[in-house]
What does this fold into?
Amino acid sequence: MIWTREIEHKNKYPNANVISLGIGDTTEPLPDVVALSMANYARKLSTPKGYRGYGAEQGCKALRKAIAETVYKDIGIKDSEVFVSDGAQGDICRLQLLFGSNMSVAVQDPTFPAYVDSSVIIGQTGDVNRESGSYQKIEYMACGPHNSFFPDLSKTGRTDIIFFCSPNNPTGHAASFEQLEQLVQFAQENGSIIVYDSAYAVYIKDGRPRSIYEVPGARKVAIEVSSFSKIAGFTGVRLGWTVVPEELLYSNGFPVIKDYNRVVCTCFNGASRISQAGGLACLSSEGFKAVLSLVDYYKENAEILLETFKSVGLRAYGGENAPYLWVHFPGSNSWDVFNEILEKTHIITVPGSGFGPAGKEFIRVTAFGHRENILEASKRLRSFLS
It folds into this structure.
């Protein structure tokens, strides 16, 4: 629907400089060390000596090892527990295939839509409430300013699966160690599996956990999905991973990792060898410094936008440990706010209602963008909102 509205707006104002702060897509070029690594690997594929066909469905061992040793340094994740993929969203769907239609599900509200939509597709939900957009049989865990964006677990019903994203998309909130400790304990007490999405973890700058496995006991209750998309600008290159610890067991004692391995080997022929070469370059000493400089660039964009909204008296959340800002327009309808901002400033945002019932008074703004566009958007927003 946003795409349709954008096309309509551009047709109406063909000469307008439309700036997108909507979809969370990276904009800056890949670091040379990463791009050259993929280019060189692709060139080798044209030679008899360098050509390779199918690889291991779980990913090349060198990359699995690099992820375990770089991303999960000192946490104790084994390379055999890392499954390389074509991105976190694909892994979420493969996990749903693993879980099946009889599982009950809890999600944060607001939440990344893929958790809900994949639950609908696999058959875990009931009918949709047309007014609120919520589905029957899904436990919506309210996460807003009133509870520091962390659900009241004492009022949360027991489910088989808990989808949890930190830093959160769309709110930008990064859970504290104490909050994640509560979540792990809750899962232990209820026999639940946490699917922890850490795609934006590299944006955390204040010492909060970047992985659920920093919390004792998490290896027995949690699966973690992550991605190179926002770490290294791989939104179009497509590369991610999922960690399934050996200690994670079904109630009958069977290891979940064995079933997930079977799903991966059945439904996936492995990530592109070229993408994996880029992933290895990202995790090299030189490459990691380069991709972190990209992250810093987007963090600076977020600071500019955060200050913009604060300067006009609006409450904006996130933007400190995540590339997203969650901006509150009390008493409003998020689609009305979206339409008014687009009409008056030629800036695309995302209506909060698209992330769940709790988002109806919010819009999401992304810090992914060229600096000149971020500065121009800031200027337009200040003028319009003040």
Observations:
- Residues 285-311 form the longest helix (27 residues).
- The CA atoms of residues 93 and 118 lie 6 Å apart.
- The domain at 2-21+286-385 is CATH 3.90.1150.10 (Aspartate Aminotransferase, domain 1).
